[in-house]
């Protein structure tokens, strides 16, 4: 997993010139929430800890989980007593979080503040306060956003303020870099492209787990509009009709699950489409190895980790050609469907 | 934000720490080895827009290639506007404002007692016949069955109004006049703001163009192929009906109430259809009719209140002349961005 700081790749033994950093990761999105950003922060923190740096994570309280917790390898997590108000985001008060951020920065002796995800209000506030106090600041953008609707316009404006005074910015793919540069007006040489990675030790292939007489297509995603659940509703009956030896494994939950169940009933595909419900992250590998093909139908992706995980488990990935997906694999290892884009 | 100023850079150096120098030396040796391997003489391996394979030799993580933002499309869906067409289109909006002003003038005359019931009823019938003739003229022939059907609908409507007229008359007896005037003016503003001006443009919308196949059943097709009902269109229609009920309820006799309600309904419900057909038939007829309408309205407002007349003229000039000029002038600042980062749109309708 690549890190966000330019370091020499020498061993962990004494190296007098190598500086040990104390990094504060700030985001609204962290465990117990599951998702791409959360995993990214966790794995990045673990890699930095292994290199000898100190990492502290700051996020908002999740229900009763408030205060300081310690995770693997001494990763310290501050669940700051601020409740989320909209889509897991803390209420933006601009100066309300200053006391606690200052407290954490001074107490932990932080040298670098690393904020994640443009959508997180806590991240923006922490970056602003950290720069006020003169700390080094890095920002990572994980998603693609539009320019035309009211929410995006507002968020881009906030992003311009925050990124006006950030030291470095990281994006997870080249398409994401173009998008971030356009939204924030940053000079492109200030944006580094460091893609996400997957822990291949966790996602090992297992050819014996998949059946040999039929083709199993696995879909694991949140069943929401953005992830193309409606495309699945159209595509699954067609494929089942065209190929009689194909089965589907659908994992994940969301508002569109009802539509998928309806489709299943309407076309009598109960035998051929298995709905697994929400799959915990630890069991994703066991579900993936049961299939031959992984289908990703999302409508927008800055960097799709799901298809990396599937490829790591030895599946053939089929994905919609959106966002950063075309950059992720060499041509021969993927098939992309050009979704009819009405621009 | 204005225009995005994207500067091209190749390998700009940031702070040079010892670690970075180490890394650079390491990379240069690797590149040298690669060159010896390939031996093709070119200085560097071509940069690829991929994120697999780790760091690309000879390129930093923040390398900005010359193909940066190559796939960006600017102002793809923006319509290039022509002054004269925009002014012609804005005449339809001015015409509608004119109609609302005319209806308000007639309301004022009725409330002042100038127009009595019989005069209003004659006016209603004349307008109805005129509208019908215009429809016949613009759409050609019409079958008897369709005619009977619409006559039936109209009879239901009129009889319903007649029966309800006494109810309307006593509806606002307990409300003071000031509240009524204030509420009516607000409702008329809402009506104007939220009105669906979708067929204001002289370009035929696709729904209607498709329906202009056969000639015989033209009228019912035009009447049935409606523009999609929007929330704002419905809100505006309701606002106008409520406003006419409020005003009508101030009148002394129930026959007057019925006549005025019929007048208001004819204008708010049926008039848009007539203007739509007229517009499709001939643009010149539409423009001529609009000018006549503006003149008639000015003549109606003049005896009432000089200030209202001045205000009306100012509003019309603003809509017809100032707004198109302003729109075209700020159009050059339009900056619509599309690119590979856009969310894909589904090409089918979600049927819930």
From TrEMBL, chain A:
This enzyme's EC code(s): 2.4.1.198
Glycosyl transferase family domain: residues covered: 206-329
Organism annotation: Ceratopteris richardii
Pathways involved: Glycolipid biosynthesis; glycosylphosphatidylinositol-anchor biosynthesis
Molecular-function GO terms, alphabetical: phosphatidylinositol N-acetylglucosaminyltransferase activity
Keyword set includes Transit peptide: no
Annotated keywords: Glycosyltransferase, GPI-anchor biosynthesis, Transferase
Pfam families linked to this entry: Glycos_transf_1, PIGA
GO biological process terms held by the UniProt record: GPI anchor biosynthetic process
PANTHER family, A to Z: N-ACETYLGLUCOSAMINYL-PHOSPHATIDYLINOSITOL BIOSYNTHETIC PROTEIN (PTHR45871), PHOSPHATIDYLINOSITOL N-ACETYLGLUCOSAMINYLTRANSFERASE SUBUNIT A (PTHR45871:SF1)
Domain PIGA GPI anchor biosynthesis intervals: 60-149
Enzyme class label: transferase
Protein name: phosphatidylinositol N-acetylglucosaminyltransferase
Automatic annotation (TrEMBL), chain B:
Subcellular location, record wording: Membrane
Keyword Oxidoreductase among record annotations: no
Region ranges (Disordered): 1-22
Top-level taxon in the UniProt lineage: Eukaryota
Transmembrane spans: 90-111, 117-138, 150-168, 255-273, 285-302, 308-328
UniProt keyword terms in alphabetical order: GPI-anchor biosynthesis, Membrane, Transmembrane, Transmembrane helix
GO biological processes: GPI anchor biosynthetic process
Membrane topology: Multi-pass membrane protein
Pathway note: Glycolipid biosynthesis; glycosylphosphatidylinositol-anchor biosynthesis
Membership in a protein family: Belongs to the PIGC family.
Descriptive protein name: Phosphatidylinositol N-acetylglucosaminyltransferase subunit C
Organism of provenance: Ceratopteris richardii (Triangle waterfern)
